[in-house]
Amino acid sequence: MTTIFAKIVAGELPADIVYQDDLVTAFRDINASAPTHILIVPNHVIPTVNDISEEDEMVLGRMLHVAKKLAAQEGIAEKGFRLIVNCNEWGGQTVYHLHMHLLGGKPMGPMLSS
Question: Beta-carbon neighbour count of residue 29 at 10 Å?
Answer without folding.
Answer: 17
